[in-house]
Amino acid sequence: MRYIPNTDEDRREMLQTIGLAGVEELFSDVPLQVKLEAPLKLPSALSEQELVEHARRLSAENVNIDEYVCFRGAGAYDHFIPSVVRHILSRAEFYTSYTPYQPEISQGTLQAIYEYQSLICQLTEMEVSNASMYDGASALAEAVLMSHRVTGRDKVFLSRALHPEYRQVVRTYLQGMPVKAAEIPCASGLTDIDWLKRKLDDQVASVVVQHPNFFGLLEEADEISQIAHQVGALFVVSVDPISLGILQPPGAYGADIAVGEGQALGGEICFGGPYLGFFATREQFLRNMPGRLVGATVDSEGRRGFVLTLQTREQHIRRAKATSNICSNESLNALAATVYLTTVGKEGLREVALLCLRKAHYAWREVLKLSGFSSLFPGAFFKEFTVSCPSSPERINQSLLKRKIIGGLELKRFYPEYPNGLLVCVTEKRTKEQIDGFVKALKESGEQQ
Amino acid sequence: MKERLVFEISRKGRVGVSLPRCDVPQDELERLIPRRHLRKNLPLPELSEPEVVRHFTRLSQLNYAVDTGFYPLGSCTMKYNPKVNEEIASLPGLTRLHPYQPEELCQGALRLMYELGEYLAQIGGMDAVCLQPAAGAHGELTGMLIIRAYFEHKGQRRHKVIIPDSAHGTNPASAALCGYQAIEVKSDERGCVDVDDLKRLVDEDVAAIMLTNPNTLGLFEENILEIADIVHRAGGLLYCDGANLNALLGVARPGDMGFDLLHFNLHKTFSTPHGGGGPGSGPLGVKRALAPFLPVPVVVKQEGRYLLDYNRPLSIGKVRSFYGNFGVMVKAYAYLLSLGPEGLRRVAENAVLNANYLMKRLKDHYHLPYDRICKHEFVLSGAKQKKRGVRVLDIAKRLIDYGFHPPTIYFPLIVNEALMIEPTETESRQTLDRFAEAQIKIAQEDVESLRPAPHHTPVGRLDEVTAARKPNLRWNQ
Questions:
Q1: pLDDT at residue A306 above 80?
Q2: Which label site among A24, B71, B133, B171 has the fewest CB atoms less than 10 Å from its CB?
Q3: CA A14 to chain centre
Q4: Residue B316 and residue A172: Cβ atoms within 8 Å?
Q5: Does residue B171 lie in a domain region?
Q6: Are strands B284-286 and B128-130 parallel, antiparallel or unpaired?
């Protein structure tokens, strides 16, 4: 066994030191009734070479999105990852270290997290960021729970234009809490502000929207924020970090908690995980925040250093009274985001956002030139848009697959009210040629029918 | 070695990336997005690529890691992270996959998830496994929500969850997050659950007991069958925190001991790297009666094809987006295939052997509060040293001078001045001997030599009090 250094002789001598006759005596405290008599029913061990061959075969049973052109987003995005990100992440000093509980020998991880927190604050214009959450959906659920802690109120309003899986995760997290979630309906693909004005009262802990929303549309975040604040509710927003290269940051429109999925920031698309939930809020709510925080301080000689701080909020100190049960988070993904944001920088992020925006709009215009395709919603959008198809979106997508194109997401999977709707995503990676190919394939899918 | 912050390295006008030129019409921004939605400025740093690489490489060199040395951190199972698993997890067919791509285009990924679930079920003695939870605590949360849903489905309202005083902090925190009252059961003089105290606490209002087995003292819960009987007879369930499963691989299974739910820590037992604090992965296994409540989707196999089943009316819903930390699952899957059933048992045997060997070598020099065979870890007390004014913190920091990562300290809470040591199976006897020699030397050192430790690190002991009192959590210009 190549991962175990002890030889038979080592084992014999070690047992002798302990004063035992055999390895089985090490397990004399396990009741006989539960001791396994036969080996586990698992496949027998593979050599490294056999393992790699097996894994390659499994890998080849999947179509990867470099082989097919991907126009699907809906919470998982095919953005470009600079080579630098993977190189830094593959440094074993980062990826084989533990949570930085011993700061003197963990300054690399700690400083990187401090930089991550600072970058998230710059990006969102919020005042404090934690060190990461599991993903965008669970970060949103934690934000909703925090709004309950902060306000003591027991209702939350979730926009129907939030990612449907995020809404589902929030509802799941609330099952054991005395908090009820209500859904704000949509009007033309946007959170219905008139409904919100009518229904909102001073029992609501938070108003929760996604911006740009699930349909790719820009919400009137500023107005919703003001409406929420009029009744003392918190405004919680889930944002696409790439969009913040050009869009107003949550801090500018008065968000109380800004969360989002950070996968787009240098993270692999990786079949949905591991991803990165980012979580930022105002300083006044600092002690109600979930998750780890890193702070700057000094040592006895006055040298700057970084430590985990305000841990009295956390489970290992506060136990049942902690602000969250989270322990392991997504530190390596946060490092990827840190390296990504540092590499693309101020100009680069704006440029990535502009490329997404312009390419998505080019694709949108070209699709709408096709007969039978129409716009589903009139609002301004960022990198995703919806169209209504002339025939079943499943059939259209099936025909696109033959041309090695993964088409948009069929909206009726989550929204039965839009049976012909397709949610199309165009990132900076899609070339004009690929977009033209996509439009041509859409056109031909109609002609075949 | 001091490294500046990226913000301090930044110089206006530098770029670290080259993006493709725009090949579609370059519409004016304000024609596409109304001005009120546009941000005025974006205050991100500006660095060139070589500066970025040097900065983060230098930061990495400030870290201690499994690849650089012994990491006997109790409860964390810091074993070697096999390199081939990293290579496999970066195959394009396993990384460049969109979670919503059609099932027929990701059969290999679904098969991997299906098989990993089957293997884990076999290892834990469970009937069904859900891979969605992103970490151990997330698995606990999922388990608690399933317990709640199960009792609600049966028309029962139960409010309490019993948790030992030696438990991980996540246990009471997870129970509380699901609206349960966490009730503490005492440990007895042998370090196990006090069965009499348990009997006193168990009633019809108890939904479950959460146990770690072996427990956080590294001791097997000898009375586990009786405990299971007591809780089950009152209609309650047994939840196993699988953080310490490394000790039992191929030896015994929580499912056979009476546990109804069990979470696995792929980033501990199954060798996936910790990444400086994550990503982990905390799959949850359950017995048949609880399977209908698992989160959606569940990977099923029908006529040789793998499908994602969302049609499960009793499911609690979802605890995160998509399917879980797939990239971590790939590494654990590769690990299991490398070891096979015999290899897994060897892991447990060597992990337990290493812990007992180290315990034997140290017990004459430190107080050993529970002197009996341990499993994968053991807990010493610095009580003797404390009499001379030496704290366990000082001992831990001094170990850094000898080139070791310190053990977990001040946990579990029931041991005064606790030092919790978990060597894992991937350390050689020579490493254990060198560590023991350092620990023994330190046991004799006096306060004056210990207090300034560590001596050769990039920073000395940091002022944590000021860090908490005047939080500085972000860089400001």
A1: yes
A2: A24
A3: 47
A4: yes
A5: yes
A6: antiparallel
Q: How far apart are CA A424 and CA A410, in angstroms?
A: 9
The answer to whether residue A231 neighbours chain B at the CB level (below 8 Å) is no
Q: What is the reported pLDDT for A448?
A: 64
Residues of chain B found within 8 Å of residue A45, distances taken between Cβ atoms: 337-340, 342-343
Cis preceding-peptide flag for B72 (omega within 30 of 0)? no
Interatomic CA distance for residues B306 and B282, integer angstroms: 22
pLDDT band at A1 (very low <50, low <70, confident <90, very high): confident
Give the separation between CA B290 and CA B292, rounded to whole angstroms: 6
Do A76 and A95 share a domain, yes or no? no
pLDDT tens-digit series, residues A255-288 = 999 999 999 999 999 999 999 999 999 999 999 9
Total domains in chain B come to: 1
Judged by a CB distance cut-off of 8 A, whether residue B406 touches chain A is yes
A247 and A121 in a common domain: yes
A interface test, pick of B171, B320, B363 with most A CB neighbours within 10 Å: B320
Residues in chain B within 8 Å Cβ distance of A5: 426-429, 431
Per-residue model confidence as pLDDT tens digits over B10-23:
999 999 999 999 99
pLDDT for residue A449? 54
Span A22-47, average pLDDT: 97
Containing structural domain, residue B257: 84-338
- The mean of the pLDDT values for chain A is 97
Tokens of A111: 């400083």
Provide, rounded to the nearest whole percent, the portion of chain A with pLDDT above 70: 100
d(CA A190, CA A216): 10
Contacts of A76 (CB under 8 A, 6+ apart): A263, A269, A272, A275, B98, B99, B100, B322
Note the pLDDT of residue A447.
78
Q: What are residue A184's DSSP bridge partners?
A: A159
Residue A356's contacts (CB-CB under 8 Å, 6 or more residues apart) are A242, A382, A383, A426, A427, A428
pLDDT at B92: 97
State whether B93 and A28 contact (CB < 8 Å). Answer: no
- Summarised one tens digit per residue, pLDDT across range B168-201 is 999 999 999 999 999 999 999 999 999 999 999 9
Give this complex's ipTM.
Answer: 0.98
- For chain A, how many structural domains are there in total? 2
CA distance A260 to A239: 5
Q: Which residue of A has its CA nearest to B340?
A: A45
Statement: residue B452 has pLDDT above 80: yes
**Angle, CA of B216, A105 and B350, to the nearest 5°:** 40
C-alpha dihedral over B95, B100, B103, B107, to 10 degrees? Answer: 10
A132 touches chain B (CB under 8 A): yes
Q: How far is B388 from chain A (nearest CA, A)?
A: 23
- Give domain status of residue A186, yes or no: yes
pLDDT band at A446 (very low <50, low <70, confident <90, very high): confident
Inside any domain, residue A210? yes
Query: What is the amino acid identity at position B220?
Result: F
**How far does the CA of residue B324 sit from the closest CA of chain A (Å)?**
6
Of A102, A274, A401, the CB nearest to B406: A102
CA–CA distance, B287 with B186 (Å, rounded to integer): 27
Interhelix angle B429-444/B392-401, rounded to 10 degrees, is 130
Answer yes or no: is A23 within a domain: no
Please, which pLDDT band fits residue B1 given cuts at 50, 70 and 90? Answer: low
A169 contact B CB<8A: yes
Buried b (16+ CB within 10 A) or exposed e, B55-93: bbbebbebbbbbbbebbbbbbbbbbbbbebbbebbbbeb
Q: What are the structure tokens assigned to A205, written together?
A: 């802990």
Question: Where in the sequence is the domain holding A293, given as residue range(s)?
Answer: 83-340
Say if the Cβ atoms of A309 and B473 lie within 8 Å.
yes
